[in-house]
Design a protein that fits this description.
The protein has about 375 residues and is mainly alpha-helical. Helix content is about 70%, strand content about 0%. It folds into two domains: about 25-100, no CATH class; about 105-365.
């Protein structure tokens, strides 16, 4: 399929005075940044390097240069529409993406981010104001934190889900896995402000051992499967992080943790073992998801690298949180509310990385 030259090209190709229209060179640079595998088109960009190398600052390209540049522009569009392993464009959607790039669209994404965060803070403070005045000040701020956490996770999911339209089905499924994990993370995180505000909850068997952590296992599975699918779509070697290998190691971890001697302070073996095994497997899945995320990032254009690197850092922080919780379980058995509250801090850091990752993904994929 051969694509016609972009309508955004101006008669003066080296001029950059218009905020909406781009030059031929500008368009080529942007199109190249959209391509998920830079090595696939690197040799094609020799044309751009050759033309720009002999132009003085402000000098317009010759008619012969323009013919070469327009041909290169067509090739990059053709690659994005027909051959890119991640992006899924039509002629119309690619032209719209070009127009968005040379307009204020990226600023509108930043504005959306600010509005969403401001709304989350306003709703949280309103919930604080509505809590009974008879509660202590600490509890008045902690109880609405469950709402705050839910809204933040909702914002993460929104940025990911609203940015997938120009990606292939497999990549949209990657973010479906991520958002499924995020939803379960929200469910799991709601309990921590409540446990910290009401320590008596921690005395209940399902919450005695760092809370009810099963939702986090499902969250980690979703993050791992998404990162694994992303790596497979890029044809990356992943023997150590393949589904059979990761599943087998998870089973071994479960058997080893269950076989450990139990502290005399443990009164509910079922919920203790459930929490210990869940968190132990979470650590392994977080390691796998972190490794896969950074592997994917290394093989992507810089446009998408930052989002995946931030996602990987979120997985690493999550793994640290799981490690801390495992240590609490092994040392103390039944976990005090204060320990649960402190142990949840890495999860909050992880959520922050995920939020910035989701925002970056939307800003860069639609800019």
């Amino acid at each position: 399929m051969r694509v016609m030259s972009a309508s955004i090209t101006t008669p003066s190709p080296m001029s950059t005075s218009s905020p909406v229209q781009g030059t031929t060179v500008d368009s080529i640079v942007f199109l190249a940044s959209l391509i998920s595998d830079p090595q696939a088109v690197d040799s094609k960009l020799d044309t751009l390097r050759s033309v720009t190398s002999h132009l003085a600052p402000g000098e317009a390209p010759s008619a012969h240069d323009l013919v070469q540049l327009n041909a290169l522009q067509d090739e990059l569009k053709d690659y994005l529409i027909n051959h890119d392993p991640i992006r899924s464009f039509t002629v119309a959607t690619l032209e719209q993406t070009l127009r968005n790039h040379f307009s204020s669209h990226q600023r509108s994404v930043r504005k959306e981010f600010i509005i969403i965060l401001s709304s989350v803070v306003v709703v949280y403070l309103a919930c604080v104001a509505l809590t009974p005045a008879s509660l202590s000040l600490v509890k008045r701020f902690l109880l609405p934190a469950a709402v705050l956490v839910s809204m933040l996770y909702g914002a993460i999911a929104w940025f990911f889900l609203s940015s997938r339209q120009n990606f292939k089905t497999e990549i949209r499924n990657v973010y479906n896995y991520f958002c499924g994990g995020i939803a379960l993370g929200a469910v799991g995180s709601i309990q921590f402000p409540l446990i910290f505000a009401f320590p008596q909850i921690a005395a209940l068997p399902p919450f005695s051992y760092i809370g009810f952590v099963v939702p986090y296992l499902v969250m980690c599975i979703g993050f791992y499967l998404g990162a694994n699918l992303y790596a497979r779509q890029l044809n990356l070697s992943q023997r150590l992080w393949s589904v059979p290998w990761v599943s087998g190691v998870s089973l071994v971890i479960a058997i080893l943790l269950i076989s450990l001697p139990h502290s005399p302070r443990v009164t509910s073996l079922f919920f203790y073992d459930l929490s210990l095994v869940t968190i132990g497997i979470d650590i392994w899945l977080s390691i796998a998801a972190t490794a896969l995320s950074f592997s994917v990032a290394r093989h992507m254009t810089s446009r998408y690298q930052r989002s995946m690197q931030l996602f990987g850092l979120g997985q690493a922080a999550q793994g640290l949180g799981c490690t801390g919780f495992t240590a609490l379980l092994l040392v103390s058995g039944p976990t005090p509310a204060l320990g649960i509250g402190i142990g949840a801090i890495p999860y909050a850091i992880s959520a922050t990385f995920l939020l910035v990752s989701a925002y970056t993904f939307k800003a860069k994929s639609q800019a």
